[in-house]
Amino acid sequence: MENVLVAGAHGTTGKHIINILNNSKDYKPIAMIRKADQKDFFNIKNVETVLADLEDNLSQAVEGVDKVIFAAGSGGEKVVEVDQEGAKRLVDASKKAEIKKFVMLSSIGAGRPEKADQLKEYLKAKHKADEYLKDSGLDYTIVRPGTLNNEQGTGKVKVKKELESVGEIPREDVARILVAALQNTTAHNTAFEVVSGEVVIEEALKELKK
Q1: Is 2-207 assigned to CATH 3.90.380.10?
Q2: Catalytic position from the list 27, 122, 132, 140
Q3: Which residues form the NAD(P)-binding domain (predicted)?
């Protein structure tokens, strides 16, 4: 069983990730939290927590960790400090700890932020974080979902390196994709965009190899 650190575990998508990992026979989740009062939510689920801040030293957070999912976000308040530099800081710590795989939650359009009409600064920050991960030498998968919603997941998606248009996708399905990408051979060293679609998640990820 592999230990998976989830940065952003207390967020809406993060909680879905924790639940999926917690019900898995392959992974043990470790919830990275920024505030001590967030512990109770995870204690009830018997999920281990580690107190760490993306704007600070993260070496302790990755101790004993096999793989990492970065699902943190500043909600638009600190895009450079958290979404960009915080992600880079966790990449650095993961590299030192010889993490086996780093799965990054990014955003649709982050591969081409210069074309964005909206959220340009956010997409620039995500782009820089993604490129930093690509250049790190770590095994990685970068997941770039469309607009997130809180509807029940369908387990079916449309995946492409670059989609023609922005669509929506439930957070639950994004969480499933992030967990599926923990497999070493799944979407290996690949960045892709994803929205709701007609193809089962596991099959859609296999299509990326072709």
Answers
A1: no
A2: 122
A3: 8-184
